[in-house]
Every structure is written in structure tokens, then in C-alpha cells.
Records
---
Amino acid sequence: MTTIDRTVTTVVFDLGNVLLRWDPAAVFEGRLTDTEVAEFMAAVDFPTLNHSLDAGRTWAQARPEVAERAPGHVHHMDAYVRDFARSLVGEVPGTAQVARDLLAAGIRVLGLTNWSAETFEHAPRAAPVLAEFEQILVSGTVGLAKPDPAIFHLLIRTTGIVPVQTVFIDDSPANVAAATELGFQALLFTDAPTFRDDLVARGLAIPRS
């Protein structure tokens, strides 16, 4: 029987709500009430629209459809795209240090994020640790988005990572399930101390929480 080497050589990070706190409602703080924000997001079907932007659609391409479906709210989506930086409300406590500890231990650190190509420029400004990552695959740039297995296959092809030797961390159960199906050591993110303990349990030489 062949023994599979599951020694971890690589950790792949999701970004939103793993490294960076993302709150789309924060864009409208002081501008709209909570009820008005909820009405806007329902009218434009924000989760579906946002996923399409993450998967490579531009706002210019999506805007006519939104304007037709929700003419009273399209200007709110204009504001969201324009002022996207306001939605990044700080780093998730402790995760950037986990990434730096992994880098210090000689582990490859990569990113795989569902993020619009039009707004990704704001991410490195909000989380400077991203400049230290070996590579970040941005869904909106490649026209694929998690949990589509194709984006994981693209990551494997372009980086040469071995899934069984790679920890993938994400806050979405669907994305974790997709990575698990492809053989990654996939973890559902809850908080940085738990994530750190999970990595230590896998034999990674980083400080315990």
C-alpha cells in the first residue's frame, strides 16, 4: 500500500473575513438606515450580484440589468463600488500574524479569494501582510469563483501545490467542502487562535495560541 505524504508545505488563505473584515453595510453608515440597507440589498439581490462581480463581471456590464430591475437602488450600488474601501473595516484579529509565523517557518503562503478585479486594489492597502504572500489568485481576474472546482484546479496548475500537503482556510462551508473534495486539508475559519491551533496540530512549527 502506498503511503500518502500529508506533511503540510503550503497554506492557502481566503481573504474576506479570514484576513480582512468585510462588511458591505459599512459603506452606507451615516447615509442609510439599517432598514434602507436591507431593502437595497434585497432589491438588487446583493449576494448573487456580488458573486457575479467576484466571478469576473464588471459593474459596467451588470449595471443596466440592475437599473432595470431596481431603478431606485442602482445609485446605491454605484456608491458601493465607488466607496468600496469603506467596507473593509479592519484586519481579522490575529490572522496576519499567523501568516507571518508561517512564512518565518518556511511554509509557502498563498491567497485564493473571491473578489472583484475592480475593487481588489483596496485589499493590500487594508492588509499589508498580503504583500508578503507568494501569490494571490483573485477570482475576478481569472473569471472563476469559489466554490467552482475550476478555480482550485487553476491554483494547483499555476503554483504547483500538492493538495494533500496544503491547508486551505475559508469562512465559507461551501468553499471548504469544494476544497476537501479535491484533497486539500480544508478548514472552516472561526477565529485566528483556533486556526493557529489547527496548524500546530498538523505539525507546523509556529507558536501556539
---
Amino acid sequence: MKFITLSNGVKMPILGYGTFTMSNDETERCVTEAIQVGYRLIDTAQAYRNEEGVGNAIVKCGVSREELFITTKIWVENAGYEKAKRSLEESLKKLQTEYIDLVLIHQAFNDYYGTWKALEEAYKSGKVRAIGVSNFYPDRFMDLVTFSEINPMINQLETHVFQQHKNDKKFLEKYGTKLEAWAPFARGSHGIFENEVLMQIAKQHNKTIGQVALRFLIQNGIIAIPKSVHKNRMEENLNIFDFSLSNENIKKIEELDLGENVFMDHENAEDIERFFKMFKIGNK
């Protein structure tokens, strides 16, 4: 496994396992299998409602806690200093661990200043080894770093061959923040698994399109957290460290960038309104 070093010196696996939309039982089974296969970075969130499943898996897996890198995220409705503190304690209990390797603010909504203050405090106390944000686009990111003591060590954004965040990545690096990709397969959109450019490159390296898509990210220093409930696909996604994309390969993939999100445009009011309604957030 290749590691990436965060701004505070903590080493984080560059490839991990995501658990979005999985039940607790399925999460326990899949995370156990993922660890058996070789994953050490496991990504969950309060909003996924499967932290218990992750906790059960990491306790039973037979791998020492120090070898694992566990990430969770503070949900929008737990925003604010006091709520965030309480929710973090709840996450620690559910994950059955004395510390969490990385905690992110899940969305740039509600009182994220208060949440960040709680995370800074947890970081200083040793309950959390690294802190960061998720879905913070340039305006919200700059708002936070300008008025905070500690810069985010990670910004987790929807990132894939069709949304590469080239300029955002350069901007984040200026503040010592690493880019982490969620939805690295673009949720299967834009015909990614039938894309001719990716298919030709995959054949050239005797790899799958999925492996090429992941290799493109990690070769650009972007952490990726693919998800699969199938053990053979977990193995396939992990098997990307025995080949490299050429400069020509990378240039062709860079040309696929549409600069568009698949899940939600965080700068579009209508998308945000739909998001709030989907998760029943707010008082209206």
C-alpha cells in the first residue's frame, strides 16, 4: 500500500474502502472482507448510520488498531460546538475505539465554525489524529481557513475522471490540504465503464477500466475510497500498484474532464434545496 503524508506528519493510505449506503450488517461483513483483502483505510460517516458495523469489523478483524486508518464525518444536523462534541463521543462509542484517525465536517452547511472548533479541540486532546472537511468548495474552504487556527488536512470532494478538480487541487495544496476522492467511479455515470479512451488504456496495461480510473487518481496524489460489496471487486480495486500510466495516458484522461459533479452541484441553490429535502434537514 502506498501512503500519503498529511500536513501534520500523519501517514494515510492513498487507497481506502468506502461504506456509503450500506446497512450495519452489510458493513460489518464487507469491511471485514476489505481488511482481509488488504485495505487499511476505512471511510464511514455519521449520516451513513453504519459506524457500528465498522466498529464491529475493526474489533473482530484480527488486525491491530494501529494498522487501521478510520475516517468518519460530522453530519449537518450535528453541527455546532456542543452538538459536534457530543456526536463525536457517540462516534467513538459506535466505532469502539479510543481515537479516530480522521474526522471530517461532512458538508459546508449549518454552524461549521462551531463544528471546526470542536474538531480542533478533539485533535489537540488526541481523540482525533487528523481533521478535515468534505464538500467544501473554494468559497467555503477559504472562509474556514481564514478564520480558524488549524487548516483542514483533507478536503473530500466528488472526484473522478469527469470531475478532476485540477485547479481546486492546486489551491488546496497551497494550504497544506490533500484532496480525497469520493465517488471515484462517477457513480457509473457518463458511460465510464464503456468509455473508449479508458478502455484502450486498460487494454494497454492489461487492467480494467475501474483500475485505470483509480490509478489516474492516486498517480496524481489524490486519495481514493472506492466501494464494492463484492470481494473480487475489492481485490480488483486494490490491485493498482503494479502499473503506471504514461504521460500520454494521463493527458488523454485529462481531456475527459467535464468539470461537473454527478451527485450535486454545491454551488447551485436548487441542488442544495433538493439535498436538504432529501435528508429532511432544517426547519422548513
---
Amino acid sequence: MLLIADGGSTNCQWCLADTTGPRQYFRTEGYNPYAVGTAAIVASLGAALPPALPRARVQAVHFYGAGITDASKAEVVAAALRQLFPQARVTVEEDMLAAARALLGRRAGLAAILGTGQNSALYDGRRLTHTVEGLSYILGEEGAGTYLGKRLLRDFLRQRLPPELHTAFAASYQPGPLPTVLDRVYAQPAPNRYLAGFAPFAHQHYAHPYCQALVEEAMEAFFTQIITQYPNYQSHTFNCIGSVGYAFREALAAAAARHGMPMGTVLQSPIEALVDYHLAD
């Protein structure tokens, strides 16, 4: 029996599966090792696991997550999983590898993530081989939820949203006065989640020309700054996972076409394809 997790900074989707029975899905909060330690993961995940989940029967845990940038960060999560599943073989890998395996299986190609954050890589059918750095939400993450949310919040605070959108934004989010916003961005935990939380506004109001232009600019920046920097990028299809990529897949396809890149697969979540990948081993 396998337990597979696709973890972002905000939430984590899990699936308990084997080759014969039905798959069991559940969600927990996200476990980014830059934000939480082993003890906190044990406490949170231990409380969130379904009571009926047969821990002793789990033979392997495959965790893919945000913030898994090196062996030390992987060990933060792996140590927690070994405590919770002492009989299981535990592997912890970065979320980009999950995206590549879900989108491409064992085929070589280019894969991207556009959700709260942004990532991308070339994949040889087994491992990631080359990455153009997204540079996180302060320096980069073009096209991601943080990028869209930051633009929306900035234009709201500067009174640059069209009046009807300004009113709708204020009613939807009630961001408060500028000192409150600045405190939330610079002094409170998880500012990336806070900023990305405004991105759904662009989808909800996508019929408005402002939101269409905002999304088009974001996807063009993603291709110009990231995708076109890969060697021979036009020889690959463009494949993407994530809530933002899925919501704006038509804008992504238009940007890909402008840069001479054929579209491949766009998925909202990798979990189903990841389960298929591991059950095929």
C-alpha cells in the first residue's frame, strides 16, 4: 500500500492507494520545511490523518513538496514521516519532480508549475536536468498567483483599478488601510500565500478588459523571462500543472503560440497521474 502526497506551501493533497482497492484521498495543510519543522509536521499531520487510515499497512510514502531544495530540507519532512509511518520506506522529493512525472510520465520534456508560486524544468524521463530559477515572489515568479496578486493589490492601493473593480476588490477582500497591508506583507507569516490569495479575483472578473490584460502580461512575462531561456525550448511541448495555469490555460496557450511552442498537457493537480506513475513501478 502506497501513500503519495503532493504538497504546496498552502495545502497538501494525499492519496492512499494500491493496485486493487479504491483510492482514498484527503487534504492537510502544506508542509514547507522553510516554514515548519519536523515536530510541527508530526503534530499537524498526525492530527489530520484520517482515523481509519491503516498506518501499519503503508509500505511506502512518496512525498513531493514545496521547499524541498536540498537534502537537509528533505530530511525535515522525511523525519516526520518516519515517525508517523515507522514501517514505511519514505522518499521526499521536490514538487517540480512531481509535476514532471505527472505531466510526462517517463517521457523527456519540459514541465512547469503555476500555482501560488512558479517553477519549471527540463526532464529526461527520470530526473530533472535543467532549471531556470523562478526566484520566489519578491524577485520573480512571473505568471504565478503571487505575481498576479501583487499586481492587483498594488493597483488597488494606488487607485489604479477601474472603479467597478476597485469596489468589487474592496468588498471581496477588505484589505484594510495601508499600514495593515504592509504589516501583513512584511511582518506576518506566509506573505506569499497572502499575496496569492488575491489572484482568484482576476479569474472571477476575467470578462473585464483589465483582468484580461493583467493575465496576458503575466503569462507573456512567464514565457519571456523563463520558458524562452531553456535551450531549444521550441522543440518541446509546453506542459503545466497548478491552479493558476489551469484557470488561465487559454492565456497560456496564446503565449505559447506567440513563442512558437506547441501546447501539451495542462492539469490542475498532479495527484491522480502521480498515483498512476508509482503504481506502474
---
Amino acid sequence: MAGDERLGLGEYLRRHRSEMTPRDRAGSSALSHRRVPGLRRQEIADVAGISVDYYIRLEQGRASRPSREILTALARAFRLSSAERDHLFRLAGERPPQPRAPAAEIRPGLQLLLDSLNHTMPVTIHDGRLDVLALNAAAAELVGPVFGGGPYGYNIVHQVFTSTGLREVLGNEGAEQLARAAASELRKALSLYPEDERLRSLFRELVASSPEFISHWDRGEIGTWRSAMKRFNHPTRGPLDFDSEMLHDPESDHWVMLFTPRRA
């Protein structure tokens, strides 16, 4: 780790330590009052499970490159958010740890966005495993028939290659476009979450049951289609055209898909 990187790491640690208060220390009672802001170096070292001498050298930019285990311990001691933890790793010259799974719950702000657009446009939210977590009333009316029961009932990739109602909703061209995107998205998801048994099981099932999936998978594509024009066959209003746009919440690995109606 170069000298300027060590200094950057040390400054980052000092700033976070100065912003902490005794009550931030997990499992401890209030400590003695003192004029210097933040926690003592000894207190942070104790929580992280490292020697105070080594921690002091980290803050002063004199320590060797810290291991990933030490960085993880420091992130836990400082109670860093995922973004703050990732920055800590980068300052130390390490790649940030890969998340084990997307967040299970939608942020309240995203849920509010979803609900507030009920009568404006269809909106769906799915996670990095391609599981639909929520859809507003307009989206349920538009794409609800696509989803079914079973363990993968709300997984986009599974429904793309197994749903009998997909082509009725999207037409042949739209269904083919979505199938291509779905296979590439699953490849990305498996790369991001290689130990996720749900994704691995889904992949095995599609390989065993869907020649169409195998055909798209063998193309080797990976990526995200952020923008697209989609035509839906609405159950009561007939063909409707939408411009779709995908927005990403990286902290949770949630994707918001907005369908803006096209003007006639």
C-alpha cells in the first residue's frame, strides 16, 4: 500500500473515530466524560479485536497493508454502512466484499414512490436475484397475469421461460426481447451471488426444462437493459406502448422499473 493510500486510510479512520460517542460502542455503558471528541483509540481497537499499537499505526499511516479480516473488523467496530465499508476497503487497496444476497425489504422511500404512482404509471421493484418484491396497482393490472405460483412464482427469469401468458401480454417480439434480457440478467446475478442456492436451483431447473432458455444462455450475453420500448396487450384497453427505464438502488441491490406511457 503506497504512502498516500496509507495516509488516506488513516484520515478516514480518524474522522470516523472522532464522530463516534461512547454510546456507539456495542455492549458498553457510558464512559467517562472528556473534552476530546470521539472514542479513544483503545476503545476502537478493543471492539475491532486488534492491538491498539497496530491501530495507532493505521491512523498514522505507518502500518503495513491491513488484511481483509482486519478491515471487516474495523467496519463492524465503526458500524459503517455498506458504502462506507466499501470505501474503507478501497482506501486499503482491497476490493470491497461481495454481498451475499440482496436486501430482503424495500426502503420506505421506494415503497412511497411505488404507491404514489399508482394512477400515473406502472412501477415494479425487483432485486438482484430477479425476484419481484413489489408492484403498484397499475403494474399489477398490466403484468399480473404473467406471474404464477410455485417457489419461483415472482421470479422474472422463471416466468419468462415458463409462463403460458407471457406472449399474450407482450406479443412474440416483446417476449423474445425479454427472454434475451432475462438470460443475460441471470448470468449477471449468478456472477454476483455465486453461492446463492436459490439462483443455482433456478438455473438447474431452467436447463432441465427449457430449450429456449438454453438457446439464449448459450449466447453468453451479460448485462442490463436499462432503457427499452415495450408494447403490452392490456386486458381491457388493448395494445399500449411504454418507455421503460430501470433505476438501481446499489445499497439494497433493488431495481425500480418505471413504465412511462407513450403519447399517441
